[in-house]
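Q: What would this chain look like folded?
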Amino acid sequence: MALLLASDYYVLLEIFIFLAVAQVIRSIARKVGFPEIVADLLAGMVIGSYAIGGVIDGLLGRPLFELSAGVLLFADLAVVLLLFSSGLDGGFISLRRAGLPAVGAAIAGDVVPFSVAVLVFSHFYPINTALLLGVAVAPTSAAVAASLIRSEKLGENRGAQFLMNASALDDVVALVMLSVVLAIVNGHTDPWELTGTVVTSIVAWVVLLLAAVVLLPRVLKVRVLRENDSVPFALLFILIAIVLALGFSPVIGAFIAGLAIAESVVADRTREITAVLVAVFGSLFFIVVGAEFDVNLLRDPVLLATALGLAAVAALGKAAGVYPFAFYRLRDRASAGAVASGMIPIGEIGLLVGALGLSSGLFTPELFGAVVVMAIVTTLVGSLLFPRAARTFRAVASASSAPPAP
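A: My prediction, written as structure tokens:
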């Protein structure tokens, strides 16, 4: 019995409590028509160590609801599953169909909010801090976009596929942007050196994508391998290891693996297994994001003003950058607006940038708190707007598939 109460088992106990609460709250949210992601975030804020969880910890005399490294690792696994599932739903064909407009939406959707944030916040903070803030407000959360599309069952929808592809490419752009900003912050301002960083990152991503799409479906044609349900997941983990070794985010490797395996003979079976895993573990990332937020920071008016300013720059800049390219591709204003709203949430990369700023001393704890609040606010706004966007996607799809009137 004493062994079961060892500190390592508190990690599992905390995860199981989070998942159990998430399933209960999600079932209630579905019945009342409330976005599931919003429910997950609010659940994390309520049962985290800064709210009810802290009270329970005090009564038990044990740090049960403190977010340990093990819980954070499981949350990262949830993000990997979400992005892998998104790649499986669309496949490389959908990414190819999205084409240059999706690339343009990803680039403009990052560059516009980044530029506005640097321009505005450089008046209040040192330029290096403003540059990191610009990167923090730029990237769309591909995990949130994937979860929104899955919750609305829009995997085959043309507009939703454009949204997912643009969100995944957005992560690549954001990571390239982060590499450049970190080089500047560390004193490397030579234009040729910065250009080399950008080119190297883009070439590595494209080569990895093409290699995965060509090789993985061929590997899975081997009879012994295609009959083993665990092989696609082994390939997923191998690809993530390669991506991490190259210095990229694991979410990029997960999405590429999904794109490649979607073109293989085991795609349908892998989708079924992944759907079960996402249904169980997919909510953990959003609960952890909510639990990381210190609700006591809401008492600081300066922090709130900064967070709302960051959220406004992120949302308006993202919409302004994405809308023209989405309209060019989809040829429908409502669908383009729906894509723009789906790319508003700022998630894992924005929080990563905030953590980097805090550890480097460029962000104060209050400024880091503002970044966390910004991520939560944009996720709430995007999640609340997306059900309307889903209706738009379905209406456009129905109109395009209907026979012409006599």
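The chain has one domain: 69-397.
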